[in-house]
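Hi,

I'm pasting everything inline rather than attaching a file, because the server keeps stripping attachments. The sequence lines come first, and each chain or strand is labelled.
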Amino acid sequence: MTYCVAITTDAGLVFCSDSRTNAGVDQVSTYGKMYHFQVPGERQFVILSAGNLATTQAVISQVKRDLRDNAPNSLKTMPDLSEAASYLGEISRQEQDRHASPDGPNAGASFEASFIIGGQIRDDKPRLAMVYPQGNHITTSKDTPYLQIGESKYGKPILDRILTAATSLEIAGRCALVSMDSTMRSNLTVGPPIDLGIYPVDSFALERMRFEEDDEYLRSLTRSWNQNLIEAFDRLPPLAAETELDLE
Amino acid sequence: MTYCVAITTDAGLVFCSDSRTNAGVDQVSTYGKMYHFQVPGERQFVILSAGNLATTQAVISQVKRDLRDNAPNSLKTMPDLSEAASYLGEISRQEQDRHASPDGPNAGASFEASFIIGGQIRDDKPRLAMVYPQGNHITTSKDTPYLQIGESKYGKPILDRILTAATSLEIAGRCALVSMDSTMRSNLTVGPPIDLGIYPVDSFALERMRFEEDDEYLRSLTRSWNQNLIEAFDRLPPLAAETELDLE
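And the predicted assembly:
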């Protein structure tokens, strides 16, 4: 499994992904799931991937080939982020169909993959889109300034509580790491190293950070969050007054 | 959808369930999902239900009929909680099979339901079990002193952080409500009123509370939790020091 989240705020974009892949619990590997593509000063794209590893690798390879070969359709030629998401969805769909044709030897097997693509093309603002396994895509809204793929539920509540369009990149980045921490704690198949990418609006430069399992900041964040949550819980109004039982 | 959680600690048992059922988003109703059965002074059972409403209602009806008719197998006659869970699973399995036989008119449709059953039989300690749609069941462990059915992921992280065998019933009850709050916030199909049941060990008496949507305690809990979480987040070590960008 995988967990990836991308956030858009007025200040820019934040991307966060884990690096664990598994086929059953005994075949666990580490693969980054964050890919960066750029035309310096012109366009920046980050792609996050989840799902079948063979599919996601094949899709990323095709995206790279199209760039290298100056293909008519590539991340260099797409007029906007929505078209780039359609292009990515089309490649993903083709790659899945190649292996999972309904009358072929793999009929019934699933090679599904999901992607988040985000970035900025000059003269447009930064944007995000999530590409479904079916190839279509959705974007963020003012009320939901983030997108998730993979094991998304454990880490969703904190995003809902913290993020707005006005959130700074520092807070959005921290929120993504906390969301990742909640997910890792509850699901063994999501794990470090954690990749974090921060893209300030109009910068046309991505800052990438990688947090290993023993990274000092990640450990202090995890420890503080656990401690702060317990304290936050302790300060809630006690239930005891509501009941007739002596609950202590 | 539904969210139910049950907790076992050294001090007793806690049960919590929402009351929303839906078949599509336009057919939403309120049904309690917590059922209490007792032989005063002898045995106490609480059943929480999730899944197909027709199945869960039919199962609960059968459990009641068996009690009323003094059937050879009923919650009155089960020697221990594990047998009671098997009995419940058997009824559930039969009820599902009746409607979903593979060559009948409903072939392919799902009538699945899950249950948590908990309680105490005299001379045994309080116990919990979760009954899968397939009819088999699991119980808690020292490290995982809770069971969930329904929409369980949003509310899991707080349970993992707070609950141990030594947790008081007050804290376990509050933790169940906070877990419910996170779930309601992220999933529209889980909603109030919220039923809370608290069973102190060896008491052979269940205290039941119902929190309506405008309940003062529930509202103050929700508001405090949101506020405390934001403060807990604000006190985390800032990410800014980790990066070379000016993120504020």
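Residues 3-242 of chain B form a domain with the Glutamine Phosphoribosylpyrophosphate, subunit 1, domain 1 fold (CATH 3.60.20.10).

If the labels don't parse on your end, tell me and I'll reformat.
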